[in-house]
């Protein structure tokens, strides 16, 4: 979620897990990140969300935020332990950066070469290695001494080129936030019928001038507040007209608005 003003968002991760393919396949951990300015409140467990007392507590006590990311894990690479549980967090430019990936990247260790020890995986997943490689590409933008935020367009270009570089390796849907902007890359994913196809992610824009549909049964509880926001999910959470994000497109979301899009990245 990206919103103009901080809002309280409670995630029923058990409900969201069922929507993603029932509790069974998504039993390998969960995590949720609430941004507050440059920092983030991150919670993760390697146990099933359906059996977590912490999940039930956060449903009603999640802090207000303008940027929220959550992930429910179905393990494809790496054992079921905390170090492999998403979302992942790193520091760059004096800010918290958070990343979560849905998919399976075969051969990512050959495609991603870490040139220094600045960003290193703690765990064994393809997702965390990809995150470290993305930050390595972004680091030159954030390195200047001045405490300034690079332009959305400059960051989007690097994120889109990175996404195009790893797309040939397998399903690569990801959400990435740098405390200022939420970047979303949609690829393809395996559906309940067993067929892999796009869209990998869907997007819904809401305005304070529109009547909001109740999300309670979908696993998302939002405090009523007049503002603008964008929701992104693997599966549409309501019967509203969610927009399927086209395959290979990267969307930059800032303060509850679609700020920029890139669908013509060149493999680099």
Characterization of this structure:
The chain is α+β, with helices and mostly antiparallel strands and 268 residues long. The chain has a single domain (2-262), classed as Glutamine Phosphoribosylpyrophosphate, subunit 1, domain 1, CATH 3.60.20. Helices cover 19% and strands 32% of the residues. The strands form three sheets. Strands 1, 2, 3, 4, 11, 12, 13 and 14 form an eight-stranded antiparallel beta sheet that branches. A six-stranded antiparallel beta sheet has the order 5-6-7-8-15-16, with helices on one face. A hairpin with a 2-residue loop joins strand 15 and strand 16 (257-262). Helix 4 packs antiparallel against helix 5 (152-166). The radius of gyration is 17 Å and the shape is globular. Mean pLDDT is 86; it is low at 19-24.
